[in-house]
Amino acid sequence: MKALVVGGGGREHALVWKLAQSPKIDKIICAPGNAGIAEMATCINISAGDISGLVDLAQKEAVDITFVGPEAPLTAGIVDVFEKAGLRVFGPTMQAAALEGSKVFAKEIMHKYNIPTAKYKVFTEAEPAFNYIREISLPCVIKAEGLAAGKGVIVAHDEETAFAAIQSIMIEGVFGSAGKRILIEECLVGEEVSILAFTDGKTVLPLLPAQDHKRVFDGDQGPNTGGMGAYCPAPVCPPDLQQKVLNEIMIPTVKAMETEGIPYKGVLYAGLMITEQGPLVLEYNVRFGDPEAQPLLVALDSDLIEIVDAVLDEKLEDIELQWKNGTTVCVVLASGGYPGDYTKGLPICGLDDVPPGIEVFHAATSKKAGEIVNSGGRVLGVTAIDKDIPSAITLAYKGVKAISFEGMHYRNDIGKKALS
Ligand code: AMP
Ligand code: GLY
Q: H or E segment at 108?
C-alpha cells in the first residue's frame, strides 16, 4: 500500500514512523513533511492547506490511503474533496470537523445531548460582551469561536484582561472571521487530560489517556503554547474514570453526531478538565493532538493500518488496541523566544548522538546546505518509552541532553505531575 500523510509537524513524523512499521505499507509520501520525515518518506512540497494540490498528488501517485494531521484542512473539507474523488482518506468530513472548527457548534452539541462542559454564553457584538463581564464574577474564559492556532482562548482573572480580549478579538479582529463570535465561559479548576479515541461513527475505541503541558515554562508558568510535552498513560485518569469518560462523553458525542445526521469518523479528541464534579469537556479536536500523538503512537503496539481500515470500513468493533507496557514521555525542544518571535535556520547538533531506543520526532526542521536547521517554534519531540514514569522521564531527558541548538529551550518537568 501507498500512504500519503498531510502535514509537517511532530504529529505527522510520528504517524509516518508508525505507518512505516506496518507490513502493509510499501511507500509513504508526506506533504509537505520536514527534514526528519524526509529520512523515512518522500516529501513533496505541497502545503497542508492546498487541498486541490493534495488531491492531484494523491491521484497522480495512486495512493491507497491518506491521513490528515492538522485541523485546518479537515475543517476546510479535505475529506469531502478526497471522498468525492474516490480516494480513501482518514478523518472527519467538513461538517463533522465543525466540532473543532466552531466552538459554538461544539457547545450546542454538548448542551443538547447533556455532555458535561463549562457554562457559557455566546456573543456576536462587543458591547453586550463588555456588559456581561461587568455583571459576572471573575475569572472567566473568553474564546474566539473559530480556529486560532491555539491562541484564541484567554483566561481572564480581571476585568482589564477580559475587556482587552474582547477588544482584540471582536473589534480589532486579530483572528479574522474566527473571532466574529465569542464565547464567555465559566472558568474550570482541575487537572487537564487529553482523551483520544478512534471511531467509525458507531464504535468508540479510546487510546491511553495522555497529558499535554500547554504553558511554556516549568510549573505551568508563562504563556500557552501548542504543547511543550506530553506523556501517556496519565494516572490522573485511572481506568474507572476512563470508563466514565467513555460512557458520559466520548460515546454520547459520537451518538449525538450520528443523531444529527453528521456521522463522525476518525480520531476524536476531547480536552477535559478533571474537576471536583467530574470530567468536563474544554474542547474537542478532530484529529490527533500534537504532541500527544508522539507518545501515543510510540506506545501503540497495534498495526495502525488495521485500525484505519476498520474505521473506514465501519468494522472497529472487531478491533482491540494493543499497547506496549510502561510509560511514554515526549519532551518538546523549542526555538529561543517561542511562543513569541524566534530565529529560524539555526543548525541543530547532536541528533546522531541520541542513545538508541529514543525517538526524536521532527516538528519544524529543514535542510540547509546539508545541515538540519530549525524552521519553526516547536522543533523536535524527544520521545522515550520505559517501564515506569520515572524511568521514561529519565530516558527522554537523556535524549534531550544530547541535542543542542542556539536558543533551544524546553520544560524540565514533563511528566512530573504523574509522579505525585
Ligand atoms: P481550548 O482550546 O478550548 O482547549 O482552550 C485552551 C486551554 O485554555 C485549555 O487547554 C485550558 O488550559 C484553558 N481553558 C479552556 N477552557 C477553559 C475553562 N472553561 N476553564 C479553565 N480553563 C480553560
Ligand atoms: N496538544 C493540543 C492540541 O493538539 O491541540
A: helix 103-112
